[in-house]
């Protein structure tokens, strides 16, 4: 049966070098519940290392964590990738890891990257360089994520920096995108006025939270049967009665 799920599909944890240090997976999950979310996608930059811990924390919290990652492509644009389950997220993580810019993170420049073990809760530093673009093209990302049964949603398309429209100036045709994300500072109406050519895509609004107090500031109401990546794709495409409501 279709029901409405309040979803924030773009939230970082302290694995992202630019995110606040208090964004442990547990703290993120607790904040999501406080603000009344039903679904959160954990989408760290170029890594999915905290998804398992967030899912473990959410299991008893009445919150669904959709495994995700915000990938920076070689065109220097950000794409939200959502995966069907933890094992597919791990496979995607391995693909992206092989395509990272070689080198180690420099915490003094980019920020700390902390990963929390799903079982033990032990926190350690991720040393890979997550702050730089990957060597994957937008086309690579879409093809590989789609093959894993996941969904691709270019991030914050209304922003000039690191967005598909900012970098390319258009959304290439023939890409199997689930939809597009607009950032929380613009509403649907304003987005369509400013970017009329995106009218053919399903739109989500998310917080892109880098601190706990930003979680849920952008939110989409998903009318779906179950909180899965596949249902989110149907909702973005307006298929089988599924739909997305944003302000
Ligand atoms: Zn981004
Ligand atoms: Zn982000």
Which structural category fits the helices and strands? alpha/beta
The CATH architecture can be named as Alpha-Beta Barrel
Order of helices and strands: EHEHEEHHEEHEHEHEEHE
Characterize the overall form: globular
The name CATH uses for the topology is TIM Barrel
User: How many whole angstroms does the radius of gyration measure?
Assistant: 16 Å
Count every beta strand, where a strand is a DSSP E run of 2 or more residues. Answer: 11
Compute the number of helices. 8
Give a brief outline of the structure.
The chain is built from eight helices and eleven strands. The longest helix has 13 residues, at about 85-100. It is about 25% helix and about 20% strand.
């Amino acid at each position: 049966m279709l029901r409405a799920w309040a979803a924030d599909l773009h939230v970082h944890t302290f694995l992202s070098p630019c995110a606040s240090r208090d964004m442990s997976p547990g703290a993120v999950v607790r904040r999501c519940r406080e603000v009344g979310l039903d679904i959160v996608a954990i989408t760290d930059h170029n890594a999915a290392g905290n998804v398992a811990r967030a899912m473990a924390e959410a299991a008893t919290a009445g919150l669904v964590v959709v495994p995700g990652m915000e990938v920076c492509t070689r065109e220097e644009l950000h794409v939200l990738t959502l995966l069907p389950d933890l094992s597919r997220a791990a496979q995607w993580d391995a693909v992206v890891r092989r395509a990272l810019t070689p080198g180690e993170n420099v915490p003094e420049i980019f920020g700390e990257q902390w990963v929390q073990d799903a079982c033990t809760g032990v926190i350690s530093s991720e040393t890979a360089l997550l702050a730089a673009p990957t060597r994957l093209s937008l086309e690579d990302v879409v093809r590989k994520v789609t093959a894993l049964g996941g969904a691709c949603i270019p991030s914050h398309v209304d922003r000039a920096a690191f967005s598909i429209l900012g970098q390319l100036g258009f959304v290439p045709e023939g890409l199997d995108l689930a939809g597009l994300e607009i950032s929380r500072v613009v509403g649907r109406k304003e987005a369509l006025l400013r970017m009329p050519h995106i009218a053919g895509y399903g739109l989500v609004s998310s917080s892109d939270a880098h601190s706990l107090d930003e979680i849920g500031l952008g939110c989409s109401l998903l009318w779906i049967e179950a909180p899965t990546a596949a249902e989110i794709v149907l909702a973005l495409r307006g298929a089988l009665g599924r739909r997305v409501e944003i302000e």
